[in-house]
Amino acid sequence: MSSLRRASAAVGILVALSLAGCSKITTPPSDRTGTPASALAGRCWPLPAAAHFDFPYQVTGQTLSADHGSWTLRLQWDKLSRAEVTSRLAASFTRAGFGRPAADGDWTRLTSPTYGSIAYRTIPLTGGSPAYVVRGTLLVSLPGEKAADRTALHCPNILTTADPLPAPPTPLTVASKAPKTSGAASGKKTSKTPAAGSPKKTKKTEGAAS
Amino acid sequence: MTLRQRALSSRTVLLTLAALHVAMKIALLPRVLSSPLQGDEVAYNNSAKAIAIAIRDLVSGASLPVHLIKLDVVGNGWFMPGVSALLAPLYLVDPSAGYHAVRIYVGVVSLVLFLGGVYVTRRVLGARYAAALLVVPGLIPMWVLFTYTAWGDLLGGLLVVALVMLLLTMWRDLESGRSARLRHGVALGVLLALTLYLRSSALPLVVGALALAGIGVLVRARGRALVQSVVTCAVAAVVFGAIVAPWSIAVSKVFDHRVVTTTTLPISMGYAFGNTSELCFGPCPPGNPWTSMVSYSRAVAKQTGLSEVVVQKQMSDYAMRNVTPSSYAGDTLSDFRRYSLDPTGFAPIFTKSGTTNGFVSALIDAGTNVLYFAGLALAAISIVTVRRIPSINQLATLLSSLFLAALMMQPFVHICTARYWPVYAPMVGIAAAGLLVRRDKERSNRTLRLAGGIVACGWVVVIGGLFVVGA
User: Fold this and answer.
1) DSSP string of A116-134?
2) pLDDT digit string (tens) for B243-295?
3) Cβ-based contacts of A28 with chain B (< 8 Å)
4) Cβ of A91: how many Cβ atoms within 10 Å?
5) What is the model's pTM?
């Protein structure tokens, strides 16, 4: 009896799986834990919309300094050389109205009159090679205030790293008239409507595609 | 003692041992009923519910819940759906079944499989082997506790008993000049596929068993019997392939990458042997390391257009780039210790408080340690001494030794815990039972002795080497 049950169940699963296998699969299966890359999507993008990063990257952690003065995000960039990423970053920040970059220890510091100051640092992958798709770590430090409204905006949670991430030596400042939210993730659009790229919409689109 | 009296007394012994096993099983039931589903059991359970829903939808003519199957059955690609297919009937009958029902259901299935295995063993190898199985693993308290769990290791291990008996039956046919029977070929294919579905890490064993069947046929059969036996082996391979293929195809499509059984190997290698602070090309996002690795690989895959399985392979390669033979041996040795030398390591999960104080716990610990290590020692002696016993018994020892070796590959590729040993415990019993067989120089086979000797040397070299290089 037991083997009969097992056999019929096995047949059932096989049928189900072959049907599932034959169906059109266009996206990876849904992920209960969420993909870290979407953590900065839509209105959760913490920088001016024009400063979008036009290279593949993923977010792997964050730290808010003890005094809440700086919010450091750890990203990794993929596929590109460090020089290429640095030049694309510079282009993004220039496009968004940040001034000339200045060195601040290991960091590169930039200031925008409407946003405030930020700093970033690129660290190529230790022992990396073109065999690996991930090429390095990008630390981006923003004024701590920029992390404040993430909960209110229902932004996906970026997990805080166990060890504090490094922060730039000079404290970051926020522009006095900085807008609270920075607009859509797709930086090509300069729409200031916060809802334009809301994470809920992004999620739904992803869900419908799968 | 007449033959009839001896048969009667051996039957009494077997029935007594079986009754003891059942009594122990009933006595330990309250303990497992206080232990909710753990870790992978939860995943299997969700998968079983999804299969039950899918079957119900199919029967009622509704469209198949593809999304649910991808989410809960395929999931991260870590588990083949053997256990979930086994549990699905329970959820077909009662969609809201709780873990108590799951534990009792699995307990009954494992009892049927175990006693069935003992029965077949008695028919093929005789009462001594059946008695040995009823003691090791049948009276090892921890093993009995594991018979209520839905991890698939123990159930897969029980199918391996049937597999050994089937191969021995086929050998017996060949030895007496007959060809391997077609229905045995079909049964072999089915058995291998079911074993793999229950325990995907049994892949080396399954492939090895097919190869052994082929070798056995080529060595033993002649003329017309050879042709027929080769056909039987081919049928076994085709049946096996036909049952496993739907899963392999489905999972390969989902991950856009060729996957035969599961996607686990790269990240498990990286996790077991690599630098754990570099698994995500640096530290992984905080949280459960396994899900963290997968969701990270998914993020990278989304950004780069690669398959997440390819990303996982790269993550593992990167984390393992500084692995040396001695670091690998050291990690394998720790794995091996957890895998094989800590049979009571999972005892705390079967107690309410998570601690193992108290009289019953002490009994379980003592009973497990005594029987498990005695069984292991006897199996080792039986494997290493290569005695002159009848060829069918020689082959039983050789097969159990080879299958033990195949199941012992896990510490070399995957992080191990004290959860997995029930998969190989029956092979320990069969190997040890070889010592109960009287020497019989006449009926002993020289080639099998030679093969046994080579395998014994392999054991000594690998285990010895592991301790020398890794310690």
Assistant:
1) EEEEEEEEEPTT--TTSSE
2) 999 999 999 999 999 999 999 999 999 999 999 999 999 999 888 899 999 99
3) 254-255, 298, 301-302, 308
4) 12
5) 0.85
User: What distance in Å separates the CA atoms of residue B250 and residue A202, rounded to the nearest whole number?
Assistant: 27
- Name residue B342's amino acid: D
How many CB atoms are closer than 10 A to CB B114? 27
**Rounded distance, CA A46 to CA A156, Å?**
13
Contact A136, A82 (CB under 8 A): yes
Rg (CA), chain B: 23
Burial level of A83, CB count in 10 A (0-12/13-18/19+)? exposed
Q: Which two tokens stand for residue B145?
A: 């506790």
Determine whether B266 is exposed, middle or buried from the number of CB atoms within 10 Å of its CB (0-12, 13-18, 19+): buried
Residue A135, CB-side half-sphere exposure with 13 Å CA sphere: 16
Q: Which member of B74, B283, B291 has the closest CB to residue A29? A: B74
Q: What is the ipTM of this complex?
A: 0.79
DSSP string, A137-168: EEEEEEEGGGGTTTTTTTPPPPPBPSSPPP--
Cβ of B62: how many Cβ atoms within 10 Å? Answer: 11
* Beta carbons of B303 and A134 less than 8 Å apart: no
Q: Where are the alpha helices (DSSP H) in B279-409?
A: 289-304, 308-319, 325-340, 359-385, 391-407
Single-letter code of the amino acid located at B325? P
Residue B334 has, within 13 A of its CA and on its CB side, a CA count of: 8
Number of Cβ atoms within 10 Å of the Cβ of B301: 24
Give kind and range of the element (H or E) at residue B30: helix B3-33
A59 DSSP β-pair partners: A75
Q: Is A11 on the interface with B (CB under 8 A)?
A: no
> What is the rounded CA–CA span in Å between residue A32 and residue B112?
36
| Nearest-angstrom CA–CA distance, B217 and B93 | 44
- Amino acid in the structure at residue B253: K
B282/A76 CB distance under 8 A: yes
Please state whether the peptide bond connecting residue A179 to the residue before it is cis, i.e. omega within 30 degrees of 0: no
List all residues 6 or more positions away from B274 whose beta carbon is below 8 Å from its beta carbon.
Answer: B316, B318, B319, B320, B323
Among the ranges given (A106-110, A138-142, B220-224, B432-436), the one the predictor scored with the smallest mean pLDDT: B220-224
Burial category of B145 from C-beta neighbours within 10 Å (exposed 0-12, middle 13-18, buried 19 and up): buried
Backbone angles phi, psi at B103, to 5 degrees: -60, -45
Pairing of strands A102-104, A134-143: unpaired
Query: Considering only CB atoms, which chain B residues are within 8 Å of A21?
Result: 246, 249-251, 253-254
